[in-house]
Amino acid sequence: MIRSPLPAAILYLVIGVFFVYWAIHDVQAAKDWTIFSILLAVFAAFDFYTSFRYFSLYFKIKKMNNKK
């Protein structure tokens, strides 16, 4: 049995939102962009990208199963 990519997509999306929240909080606390806040934004972008890839994979699999 193949596991659905949907839980992984949701998890990456939640982690991405957390990183964005953390980066915004860090920028407001430091009153400027720091290396740490830039890294948080990069990690958030990676998580969003991975999440969207998993969502697209999930919908492709769902579409293929509906054709059967």
Short description:
The chain crosses the membrane at residues 7-24, 36-59. This protein is mostly helical and 68 residues long. The chain has one domain.
Description of the molecule:
By secondary structure, this protein is mostly helical. It has one domain. Helices cover 85% and strands 0% of the residues. It has two helices and no strands. The model has no long low-confidence stretch (mean pLDDT 94).
- The gross shape turns out to be rod-shaped
Strand content: under 5%
**What separation lies between the terminal Cα atoms?**
17 Å
Structural class: mainly alpha
Q: What is the typical, i.e. mean, pLDDT?
A: 94
The SSE order reads HH
Biggest sheet architecture: none
Our count of helices gives 2
Unreliable residue runs: none
Radius of gyration: 16 Å
Helical proportion, percent range: over 70%
* Number of separate structural domains: 1
The count of strands amounts to 0
Keywords: Membrane, Transmembrane, Transmembrane helix
Protein name: DUF4305 domain-containing protein
Organism: Terribacillus saccharophilus
Transmembrane segments: 7-24, 36-59
SSE order and pairing:
Elements: H1 6-30, H2 35-67
Task: For the structure shown, list the relevant keywords.
DUF4305 domain-containing protein, membrane, transmembrane helix, 68 residues, mainly alpha, transmembrane, 0% strand
